[in-house]
Amino acid sequence: MKELQQKIADYIRFGQVMLALGAFLMLGLLLPNGQKETVQIFAMMGVIAAFLGGSFYFFYRVRELRDKLEENEHEQSL
C-alpha cells in the first residue's frame, strides 16, 4: 500500500513536470521572436505533443493506481 502511494506521488510529479515543459515550449512557439524555419516549428510541435502525451499518460496511471489503492483499502476493511 505504501508502495502504491509512492508511485502515485511520483507519477503526479512526472505528469506535472511534463505538462509544465509542454506549456513552456508552447509559449516559446507562439511568441514571435524572429524567424523560425518550418523544420523547427514541426520539431517543437512534435516535442510538445510528446510531453503532453506523456503527461496525460502519467495522470491516467495515477487514476488507475488510486482506484487500485481504494479497492485494496476496501478489501482490507472487510
Description:
There is one protein chain. This protein has 78 residues and is mostly helical. The model has no long low-confidence stretch (mean pLDDT 93). It has helices spanning 2-30, 38-77. The chain is built from two helices and no strands. Helices cover 88% and strands 0% of the residues. It has one domain (2-77).
Order of helices and strands: HH
Summarize model confidence as the mean pLDDT: 93
Largest sheet: none
Coarse shape: rod-shaped
The parts where pLDDT drops under 50 for at least 5 residues are none
The CA-CA distance between the termini, in Å, is 16 Å
Q: Please report the number of helical segments.
A: 2
Question: What share of the residues does DSSP label as strand, in percent?
Answer: under 5%
Number of domains: 1
Tally of strands:
0
| Derived structural class | mainly alpha
SSE arrangement:
Layout: H1 2-30, H2 38-77
Helix pairs in contact: 1-2
Short description:
The protein is mostly helical and 78 residues long. The chain has two helices and no strands.
What tags apply to this protein structure?
78 residues, mainly alpha, 2 helices
